[in-house]
Specification:
Layout: H1 17-21, H2 29-49, H3 60-84, H4 93-135, H5 141-156, H6 160-173, H7 185-213, H8 231-250, H9 258-276, H10 280-331
Helix pairs in contact: 2-3, 2-7, 2-8, 3-7, 3-10, 4-5, 4-6, 4-10, 5-9, 6-7, 7-8, 9-10
């Protein structure tokens, strides 16, 4: 999905881009430095996220790193807010309403992701049954076939929680544009930084939804004006990842997650053998395929567990940021130390 943006303006490599962008806005050197630090860091994170090999796209290890990067970016914006010393009383009511609304939507998306990771992990039980029935001295082909059928049905089924993410993503995309800031230099810095966070958050979440749902409906081709110093890094990353995801889907695969795809390939080799019965020629094929299946099953299980931890971390970061803002609204204080991530939340994170 793509959103219509303002026409891109040329980006000139000479001079100070921050002075050019904020000419006449009376930003102090301190504010310019804070913004520059945030945007340079954002650009570096995006560059590191670009897969070295296109085969890494939608690999669980890469998805874990993508979520880890998203956590870091959200922590960066909290650090910026603290450094700005921007009191809540100076925040526009619209900013607060949008932030609180968006944070709830992100929490819902995290819950959906955790639900899907848990569902995929349940498929591990089917594969364990397959291995148990094929690795013993007496091979139970009928039971192995039943477990293989169960695995394929489980993997191809749909998670209703993910269906709800489509509408949530559409709603988040509607608030992505930069608001007009008139009389607040700190507000301009904050909103510009928040724009970057929203763009990257939408992009990464759209990748996860595409990977988990089996649909490219919400794969976003967001366009960032070239006046942002991180625009080139983002555009390069977006093109690389989205193009590869579309190529993967064009092949009509059962699953687009690379580790699960490897399992599916082995399952396809085993299925006709366990269905028709074993002959001496196929004995060695079963042995090697079963060994491969065990290795691949462990990789999937470990990859999903690590990914679940990163989704849990993102949930905590969004929740602590939301709670900190609500706390400051009640006491009328500054958004300072309370905006830093804490470990005070027990039992709140998605499991």
């Amino acid at each position: 999905m793509s959103r219509q943006q303002d026409p891109q303006r040329p980006f000139f490599s000479f001079g100070n881009p921050f002075q050019m962008i904020y000419k006449g806005s009376n930003l102090s050197p301190k504010l310019l430095d804070l913004l520059k630090t945030f945007e340079v860091t954002l650009a570096e994170r995006l560059k590191k996220l670009k897969p070295v090999d296109r085969e890494d796209v939608l690999r669980l290890s890469w998805m874990r790193y993508a979520m880890e990067s998203l956590c870091a970016i959200h922590t960066d914006i909290k650090t910026l807010i603290t450094a700005l010393e921007f009191p809540v009383c100076d925040w526009d009511d619209k900013w607060i309403d949008v932030y609180l609304d968006n944070s709830v939507k992100l929490l819902d998306i995290c819950i959906a992701f955790s639900s899907e990771i848990s569902r995929l992990n349940q498929s591990h039980l089917f594969l364990q049954c397959v291995l148990h029935n094929l690795e013993g001295a007496t091979k139970q082909f009928m039971r192995a076939q039943s477990s293989l059928d169960g695995w394929r049905q489980h993997i191809s089924s749909k998670n209703p929680r993910l269906e709800n993410c489509f509408a949530i993503m559409d709603s988040l995309a509607e608030t992505i544009d930069l608001p007009k800031i008139k009389n607040s230099a700190k507000g301009k810095v904050l909103m510009r930084a928040m724009y970057g966070v929203k763009v990257v958050t939408l992009f990464i979440c759209s990748i996860f939804i595409a990977a988990f749902s089996g649909s490219m409906k919400n794969l976003m081709d967001l366009h960032v004006p070239e006046t942002f110093s991180w625009a080139e890094a983002f555009t390069d990353l977006r093109a690389s990842v989205n193009n590869e995801i579309r190529n993967i889907y064009s092949d009509g695969r059962v699953t687009v997650l690379k580790e699960l795809e490897a399992v599916d390939t082995t399952v396809k080799k085993l299925y006709p053998i366990v269905q028709d019965g074993l002959d001496p020629v196929e004995a060695e094929v079963v042995q090697y395929s079963t060994s491969d299946l065990r290795i691949q099953t462990e990789k999937v299980s470990q990859g999903l567990d690590l990914l679940a931890k990163e989704v849990d971390s993102f949930f905590r970061i969004v929740l602590t940021g939301r709670d900190a803002l609500l706390c400051n609204l009640r006491v009328g204080g500054n958004v300072t130390n309370t905006m830093q991530p804490t470990d005070d939340i027990q039992g709140q994170a998605v499991r």
